[in-house]
Design brief:
Subcellular location: Membrane
Transmembrane segments: 35-56, 76-96, 117-134, 154-171, 183-203, 209-234, 255-279, 299-320, 332-354, 374-393, 405-429, 435-454
Number of domains: 2
Largest sheet: none
Organism: Manihot esculenta (Cassava)
Oligomer: single chain
Structural class: mainly alpha
Radius of gyration: 24 Å
Strand content: under 5%
Protein name: Protein DETOXIFICATION
Family: Belongs to the multi antimicrobial extrusion (MATE) (TC 2.A.66.1) family.
Number of helices: 15
Length: 485
């Protein structure tokens, strides 16, 4: 029996399409596995470390409304400012270490980390006056005298945390670039368990209040730093650590410039939602709105840890692949992580909407604060979805070294569009905290759209060539002098 040629062609096309589909699914799964090996532990680590401050805030809320406001404002404004600066400046290390690791130049990583310590510890010293004079600063930006005094007292006790940040972020970028993420995850998990117990003991059981909160939070952050350092010093990190060297003080100005660009980029993002708490403090009778918005920011912060985990993962993937000259893999990683993070964002938004009548009572015993938090949960869910993708795209920027470009985008979207829109809606049109948050969410949406366009039109082969040039430039002084290794 003869078979028509068109029928055979149809079977051939069908087989080809099926094979193509299987190939796409297989490639997606393979890249997903690579990403989750990095993102899973990174998400867990970020959640554990964020939960240190969030748990402290929760226990403070069980003590009283003023204690909750004090810890919330200090966490969001003072420590939030320091966190943004330190994380941002440490992200320069993420670009350099990741691309050097991808290029096989392992010996550079230890020097890079030491240079970053020098810069971040110096920056921490410059930030000390903000902690010391935080009460008048908080009053200047609109907080009440009562909240400013309590938050300022707590900020002064939290100075040790500032220097823990300066040590921790370079260590984390050093380990992440080598994909040693499980170490950080285990350390953070153990510290979180200890932190939860001692927070309950000191804050509630012994009644030490804010003093107990400061003791446990400072101690927890320094345990993380010391444990990670011991791991690096003992294992030598597969050759990436060879001891302290005077080379850490060479090429500092060039390193500072890249660190500042990274800091500006990430600080503009971190401070944006921090400003939301500050502006809310200028509303009439601000105690309840500030507590409500602080609870929402607490939930948003926990969700943001998922995105930050993907931020770290895609930064490592992009920097490693560009450093190794694999432009196609770098581009494909961006596609896979974007699809994954959006899917997770939709799920998290649904969880927020489903639990909006219940989750406020985890943070407060005040009926008024709980009702206001429930009212704000609609905007919280939308922000959760937007912030599922935005940090991922920022991670792409860090991995590729686009910090300066994204800094300009952030200024335009956040502070020229979003912030004025929020103030206009909140105060001029009297929509209150809902209006403030809505306008600022519009800024996040605009920034996300622009980053999607920038990423879509990127010439990844050119980025790989620039990564190779960057590794040669920053590795030059180290290659010339190995006598100290």
């Amino acid at each position: 029996m003869a078979i028509d040629a068109p029928l055979l062609d149809g079977y051939a096309k069908s087989d080809h399409q099926e094979n193509k589909y299987i190939s796409v699914v297989r490639d997606f799964n393979e890249e997903s596995k690579r990403l989750w090996k990095l993102a899973g532990p990174a998400i867990f680590t970020a959640i554990c470390q964020y939960s240190l401050g969030a748990l402290t805030q929760t226990f403070a809320g069980l003590v009283g409304e003023l204690e909750l406001a004090a810890v919330s404002v200090e966490n969001s404004v003072i420590a939030g400012l320091a966190f943004g600066v330190m994380l941002g400046m440490g992200s320069a290390l993420e670009t350099l270490c990741g691309q050097a690791y991808g290029a096989g130049q392992l010996r550079m990583l230890g020097i890079y980390m030491q240079r970053s310590w020098v810069i971040l510890l110096t920056t921490a010293c410059l930030l000390v006056p903000i902690y010391v004079w935080s009460p008048p600063i908080l009053e200047l930006i609109g907080q009440t005298t009562q909240i400013s005094t309590a938050a300022g007292k707590f900020a002064l006790w939290m100075l040790p945390q500032l220097f823990a940040y300066a040590m921790n972020f370079p260590i984390q970028k050093f380990l992440q670039s080598q994909r040693k993420v499980f170490v950080m995850a285990w350390i953070s998990a153990v510290v979180l368990l200890l932190h939860a117990f001692f927070s309950w003991l000191l804050i509630l059981k012994l009644g030490w209040g804010l003093t107990g909160a400061a003791i446990t939070l400072n101690t927890s952050w320094w345990i993380i730093v010391i444990a990670q350092l011991l791991y690096i010093f003992i294992t030598k990190s597969d050759g990436a650590w060879s001891g302290f060297s005077w080379l850490a003080f060479s090429d500092l100005w060039g390193f500072v410039k890249l660190s500042l660009a990274s800091a500006v980029m990430l600080c503009l993002e971190f401070w944006y939602l921090m400003v939301l708490v500050v502006i809310t403090g200028r509303l009439p009778n601000p105690l309840v709105p500030v507590d409500a918005i602080s609870i929402c920011m607490n939930i948003q912060g926990w969700n943001a840890m998922i995105a930050i985990g993907f931020n770290a993962a895609i930064s490592v993937r992009v920097s490693n692949e560009l450093g190794a000259g694999n432009a196609r893999l770098a581009k494909y990683s961006v596609i896979v992580v974007s699809v994954t993070s959006i899917a997770i964002g939709v799920i998290c938004m649904a969880v927020v909407f489903a639990t909006r009548d219940y989750f406020p009572y985890l943070f407060t015993t005040s009926e008024a604060v709980a009702k206001e938090t429930t009212r704000l949960s609609i905007l919280l869910g939308i922000t959760v979805l937007l912030n599922s993708l935005q940090p991922v795209l920022s991670g792409v920027a860090v991995g590729a070294g686009w910090q300066s470009l994204v800094a300009y985008i952030n200024i335009g979207c956040y502070y020229i569009v979003g912030l004025p829109a929020g103030i206009l809606l909140g105060f001029t049109f009297s929509f209150g905290v809902m209006g403030i948050w809505s306008g600022m969410a519009g800024g996040i949406l605009l920034q996300t759209i622009i980053l999607i366009i920038v990423t879509s039109i990127t010439n990844w082969q050119k980025e790989a060539e620039e990564a190779e040039s960057r590794v040669r430039k920053w590795g030059g002084s180290i290659a010339e002098d190995r006598s100290e290794w």
